[in-house]
Amino acid sequence: MLVAILFLLKTEEERTKMRPPNVLYEVILTWDGASEDDLDLYVQSASGHTVSFNNREGGQGSLISLDHDALGRRNHHLPEGVKGALTKFHEEKVSFRGVMSGENIVTVHVYSKRDEKPTRATIKLIKIKPFKEIAMKEREFTSTGEEKVAFRFKTDETANVIEVNELPANLTNPLGEFQE
């Protein structure tokens, strides 16, 4: 019994050590590493700052940042003739260095759909210390330009997640205007 408890504590410690020390929450998007598709994570914090591939830091006063922008296989392959290993998935990650009371919105946008088959993506909200998976959603994408809400989550003034929902949102085109 004691061995099992020590193992669980060690596992928790290792998970926490792998995360940056100044991060409260992470939103992580993953999809198949063999996919040619380029999916993008869009996150809007309760302060109104939005991060994405074209606005990685969210502007002045932002406490969120896009830590990695995956581009599908374009930046996830070994050069011809080179032997090595790759992860089996693409990953985008947004870090929250601080949160305020209010609602945060997470969407996924298809920048470029190249695969013939639909692409399944997983989106997670993780609290770093203590490590806890708060939300996990799967979404399927079929066309370029498609945007889907992963989830919205409300935080209180002490940085606790108090609600998770899937109400609609559009972060790539917030005014809802038609784009060609």
List keywords for this structure.
9% helix, globular, Lipoxygenase-1, five-stranded antiparallel β-sheet, mainly beta, 10 strands, 180 residues
How would you sum up this structure, described in words?
This protein has one helix at 2-17, and strands at residues 25-32, 38-44, 50-51, 64-68, 89-96, 102-112, 119-127, 132-141, 147-155, 161-165. It is mostly beta strands. It has a single domain (22-165), classed as Lipoxygenase-1 (Sandwich), CATH 2.60.60. A five-stranded antiparallel beta sheet has the order 4-5-1-7-8, with no helix packed on it. Strands 3-2-6-9-10 form a five-stranded antiparallel beta sheet, with no helix packed on it. The chain is globular. The mean pLDDT is 85.
List the helices and strands and how they pair.
Blueprint: H1 2-17, E1 25-32, E2 38-44, E3 50-51, E4 64-68, E5 89-96, E6 102-112, E7 119-127, E8 132-141, E9 147-155, E10 161-165
